[in-house]
Amino acid sequence: MLLLLLLVALGAPGCVERQLVIETDPPGAELFVDGREVGTTAAGQPVRVTFEAYGTRTVVARRRGHAPVRRDVTLDPPWWQLFPIDVFTDLLWPGTLRDEHRLELTLTPRPAPDEPEALEARARHMGLHEEKRP
């Protein structure tokens, strides 16, 4: 009986689901993790990115009319994913463990572009604009 329980335990390994959950304000931003597009946020629906290894990730959020946001995020393991405990949680735990890291990014609107005449006047005032000569 003990041998049977041991075989069942080894045949049904545990599972750890690791996710980076990203929300943006405002929603509708395209998200990139380590240069790879991972999705677009929606109202009340964050983007969930699964990962295998812990470490630092670069997250970029872009949305038209807003300044892009770039953030380096360090994903640290929980205590139950440190050696030697992780051997048990990764291989022998009978259920699924979830490790969720949340990230909220706020995008700021870009200012409206100046009218061409106002831009030219500012350039003239700063001495950066040359007068047109016929």
What features would you describe in this structure?
- The chain is α+β, with helices and mostly antiparallel strands.
- It has a single domain (12-126), classed as Immunoglobulin-like (Sandwich).
- It contains three helices and seven strands; from the N terminus they run αββββββαβα.
- The strands form two sheets. It has a four-stranded antiparallel β-sheet, with no helix packed on it. Strands 4-1-7 form a three-stranded mixed β-sheet.
- The termini are far apart.
- The mean pLDDT is 85.
Topology:
Blueprint: H1 2-11, E1 15-25, E2 30-33, E3 36-40, E4 47-50, E5 55-62, E6 69-75, H2 85-92, E7 96-106, H3 116-126
Parallel strand pairs: 1-7
Antiparallel strand pairs: 1-4, 2-3, 2-5, 5-6
Task: Give me a quick take on this structure.
The protein has 134 residues and is of the alpha+beta class.
Strand order of the largest sheet: 3-2-5-6
Overall geometry comes to elongated
Give the CATH architecture: Sandwich
Q: Please write the string of helix (H) and strand (E) elements.
A: HEEEEEEHEH
Topology, number of strands: 7
CATH superfamily: Carboxypeptidase-like, regulatory domain
Structural class: alpha+beta
| Distance separating the two termini | 100 Å
Low-confidence stretches: none
Question: Strand count, sense and closure of the main sheet?
Answer: 4 strands, antiparallel
Number of helices: 3
CATH topology assignment: Immunoglobulin-like
- Rounded to the nearest angstrom, the radius of gyration is 25 Å
Mean pLDDT across all amino acids: 85
Proportion in β-strands: 35-45%
- Write down the domain tally: 1
The amount of helix comes to: 10-25%
- Look at the structure and give the CATH class: Mainly Beta
